[in-house]
From TrEMBL:
It comes from the Bacteria. The lineage of its organism: Bacteria, Pseudomonadati, Rhodothermota, Rhodothermia, Rhodothermales. It comes from Rhodothermus profundi. Coiled coil: none annotated. Residues 1-20 form the signal peptide. PROSITE patterns: PROKAR_LIPOPROTEIN (PS51257). Keywords: Signal. InterPro entries: DUF4292. This is DUF4292 domain-containing protein.
Amino acid sequence: MRLVFLLVSAVLFLSGCARGPRLTERPALPDQFPYHSAEQICYQLRLPADTIHAFTGRARLQVRTPAGTDNLSITIVARRNDSLLIRLSPGWGIEAARLLITPDSVLLHDRVHHRLYAGTRTEQAVRHLPLPAGRDPFLSLLGILYPSSGFWHVTADSGYYYLQDPSRQQRYIVDPTRWRVVRYERYTPTGILVEVYRFEAFSRFGSIFLPRRIHFERPDLGMTVRLYYRTLQLNPPNLQFVWNPDARLRRLPFQAMLEQP
């Protein structure tokens, strides 16, 4: 059960050329800083996402929990508003699992134990898994986060914008030199921190900056996940989704995976 849990945790994150571009220095601050409105900031954050329709990537993944530390290699093939396939390996040429996410379903093929788990994106058991059910998994895996529409309180220091919702349950830290979120925090109504994203090691893909390193924390679970993209290619001409579990495998509900010892 622990191995399957760790494999599924890869899809929390989230992410050219064959080896990926070089890391870039931080550009200069825009002339209008620090006087951008919340609407202007949100527009700049959303703009690059509209140009990305598909991507492929290879990455290293480290998962730390109270039970220990695991290291995995993952391969991602994704088409926006369609399907996202993640292949997970602990090494030694072993492919332990394949995870397929569609707009309305989630399927996990546990190739080690020959099990196939299936569920919808909205069912309660899937929500209990470390999946970006409430987010766009395509953008999450690229490290692209931005505030939803609505009112956001904006403050600034010497180099960053800070956006916070009226309930003080969400906080975004924005780098205006790249127009990317570099940190996201989510709190409970009582002010307890429950989720943190950090985005680092930015590279430039044409006019778009994307993080090569994604750091995710769930303090309530004692879980920390670090993902580093070795390669990342945007809008590749051809995508191959290889999803071929044995047709004789019976589909199990995700609740059954949660109940595994």
